[in-house]
Amino acid sequence: MPYANTEAMQQFLDRFAATIADDEHVVMVLDQAGWHDSRALSVPANVTLVALPPYSLELNPVECVWLYLKEHFLSHRLYDDHNAIVDAACKARRRLTAQAGHIKSLCTYPWNPKVKT
Questions:
Q1: Looking at the predicted structure, is the pLDDT value of residue 34 above 90?
Q2: What is the C-alpha to C-alpha distance for residues 87 and 13, in angstroms, rounded to an integer?
Q3: Are residues 51 and 16 in the same domain?
Q4: Domains of the chain: total
Q5: Beta partners for 30?
Q6: Could you tell me which residue, 14 or 114, shows the higher pLDDT?
Q7: Angle ∠(11,108,113) on CA atoms, nearest 5
Q8: Is 115 inside any structural domain?
Q9: For residue 47, which phi and psi values (nearest 5 degrees)?
Q10: pLDDT tens by residue, 68-87
């Protein structure tokens, strides 16, 4: 989606909720971006939104992924248009996900509990 807004978040939640099994419930941890405000969203019954405290980057491990992508693939470059930005971001994501275990190493903090999958 080209926009990060409440409408896009609502579409994401609706589509995501449709993938959840009938006997499951998902807790989604979000930062406090304006479009994550649950008062403006119709949150599906099988999803609970939990907001992180403000200014708590250390509680949001995906911030380390964004930092890595920016430092290694996306910063200090000029892009011709929106499509070029999307292409660069997709290429960066593919390069990162091709490195087995790298995302886990970026998102694992010593104080995080171990999660069994």
A1: no
A2: 24
A3: yes
A4: 2
A5: 51
A6: 14
A7: 90
A8: no
A9: -130, 135
A10: 899 999 988 889 999 999 99
Q: Are 41 and 11 in contact (CB under 8 A)?
A: no
Q: Give one word for 14, left, alpha or beta, with left for phi > 0 and alpha for psi -120 to 50.
A: alpha
Higher-confidence position of 58 and 7 = 7
Full residue range of the structural domain in which residue 84 is found = 61-107
SS3 95: helix
Residue 117 has what pLDDT?
A: 45
45 with 67, same domain? no
Q: Whole-angstrom Cα distance, residue 37 to residue 101?
A: 32
The verdict on 24 and 48 lying in the same domain is yes
Cβ count within 10 A of residue 5: 13
In a domain, 116, yes or no: no
Flag whether 71 is in a domain: yes
Where on the phi/psi map is residue 55: left (φ > 0), alpha (ψ -120 to 50), or beta?
A: left
Length of the chain counted residue by residue: 117
Q: Does 23 map to a domain?
A: yes
Question: Quick one: 51 and 65 in the same domain?
Answer: no
